[in-house]
Amino acid sequence: MVHQLSVDEFLEKAQQLPVIDVRSPAEYEHAHIPGAFSIPLFDNDERAQVGTKYKHAGKDAAVLLGLTMVGPKLADFVIQSKKLTPTNKEVLVHCWRGGMRSGSFAWLLDTAGIRTSTLVGGYKAYRNAVLSAFGQPLNLIILGGKTGSGKTDILKELARQGEQIVDLEALANHKGSSYGAIGQHPQPSNEQFENLIFRQLKTLDVSRRIWLEDESRSLGSCFIPLLLWQQMQQATTVFVDVPKDRRIHRLVTEYTGIDHNLLVQATERIKKRLGGKATQDALEALIRQDYATVADLTLAYYDKAYTHALAQRDPESIYSLEMDEDNPFETAQQLLQWANGQPASGVLR
Q1: Is the Cβ–Cβ distance between 16 and 87 less than 8 Å?
Q2: Does the pTM of the predicted model rise above 0.85?
Q3: Which of 209, 249, 294, 318 is most buried, with most CB under 10 Å away?
Q4: What backbone phi and psi angles, to 5 degrees, belong to 180?
Q5: Catalytic annotation, residues
Q6: Which of 115, 214, 108, 211 is nearest to 161 (CA)?
Q7: Which pLDDT tens digit goes with each residue over 284-315?
Q8: What whole-number distance in Å separates Cα of residue 255 and Cα of residue 252?
Q9: Looking at the domain covering 136-348, what would its CATH class be?
């Protein structure tokens, strides 16, 4: 017997059971429930043909066409599904709206002895839950700091010391600047980025504090969900102030050995903001592999931009932590002392 589950019930079971997404490969590739396996009922071309048939000849004709396409695949569907659940033989299945595609697939698996549950409302219902979740009140602390301050490493140290974090740059596969895609995997779609943030938030206790890095709303082609972004803008911010020479050293370490052409392209992208002479000087420094000079020149722009963005926040919500060295472990220690109401030598209003 096939069971139907709400989004919350479905996601709760998904922590232990495999999720099968029976939408087309294109739908899945664009965005999907993180961790779901793709076993499409129709390939992209077949889905288009069925849709066209439905439009021009009606539901019955479309269903008949779909059956002729799916028939030869039935045994393979069962084989693939059983491989996902070799022990308890139980799976979760969804399509776009929770209609015929998931219902038919679930019926097949149930007939083959695999306990199956479907998602009421399908992926569309899941997406509604994703977007609604970003409006829930969160206890956020924003970790600020100029480019090269090591904020991502500080976040990781906070996580190692038991704090809750959301690493937006890791989820977006982008560090935020013109150079942010260098060395990263391809970015997810914006929709998938939202799904990944939602999954991360589902693992956290929203009554406890959550640390996020201060970001502009866009991370490459990914945008932080508006409701979450608005909460970030209103949250308490701790600005980690690291000396410029330490930040330059970190950037040189991170970008040494990276494809020279990618660095040139990233530098040219900010030419208008950097200025013609500074851009030319930076490009010439790249030719000499003088990465310290490149970092120094580009930080002139990025520091100014970040200072301007920070000034848009309520001054009463901003604290400053002055650090003489680039030491993520020590910085995390200082932040925790401050967050727990204990004296922290470097924290100033």
Answers
A1: no
A2: yes
A3: 294
A4: -65, -20
A5: 95
A6: 211
A7: 999 999 999 999 999 999 999 999 999 889 89
A8: 5
A9: alpha beta
